[in-house]
Amino acid sequence: MNEPRKQSASGERHEAIDVSDFVYAATGARVRRLTMPDGSHWFPAVDVCRELGHSNPQKALSDHVPTEHRESLETLTRGYGLSIPAGREWRRDLNVISLQGLILLVNACTKASCAPLKMWVADVIETVQREGSYTLEEAEVQPTGPGAPIAYAMPEQVAEAIVRLETRNLQLDEDFANGQRESIELQKEMLAVQKESLALQREASTTQKATLAVQQAMVRAMERIADRLDALVLERRTPDAHLAVPPTTESVLADWRQRLSVTADVWTVAVVVAPILVEKGELRDPLEAIAARTGLSVHRVNECLRLLRKHACIRSQGGTEDGAPVYVLSRS
């Protein structure tokens, strides 16, 4: 382990330091690796970033690892004519980095956990400069046994069957998870629709009941007024005698009914304001109050009052301190 790189008599190349021991000495952690047929080593970026505490592996790679030292697993294996390795979490879109990329990523990190690598690199360079070689201490050698990371060198003809089985299992797991997510989303949507439907039903029921009650009350009031007006028409006195009698709500409404063509809205406003004009002698209520009692809009109430004024049913007499108009009965 103390020479740069050797070749055996059979032509095979041997590393001066086993790559697993090198990574363990540099990071103090076991990291999965994929060894390609040409002897190059690639490591899942997520493993390294997890050890370094990077929450965003993509940003860490973009900031510190040049593009020539990072690749996607699918592109890398395709370049060597290999299939995706079988194994837990080895996905097609997995980002992998070369050994140089691993060293650059760890060395560029400012976290305290990266200090051992920087000190170790400095120690290696200083030792090689001074002694011409470097040997790992026993504590720096990665332990073997269960749980150690697996290195893959997977020619296509060996890996194909395993990959098909593993891909099928992963696809089944993914389909099952997607099915569960879709089912949950559909259940949530159905529940939301049910809640919205119940709320609309309650709102519609309340609105219908209130509208029906108002309509029934208005019909009863208009029937009573119509009956009274019919009686007044039959018993109406001479004009001079009529002027001498103090006006009543019924006589006022009867007079108004003869003065103009009464629509439902105008009659609704007339039924509300006539008693006030007879009892108080003037109408000082704001338009909003009349609108609340009639169920009409403020604009429509104002139009109805303007129509009553145009046909000499009422006339304007100044305004209140708040600027609201004051109306009195027209004597013409």
TrEMBL record:
Pinpoint the Bro-N domain residues: 16-132
Lineage, top-rank taxon, reads Bacteria
Q: Which InterPro entries match?
A: BRO_N_domain
Pfam families xref list: Bro-N
What PANTHER family does its record include? BRO FAMILY PROTEIN (PTHR36180:SF2), DNA-BINDING PROTEIN-RELATED-RELATED (PTHR36180)
What name goes with this protein? Bro-N domain-containing protein
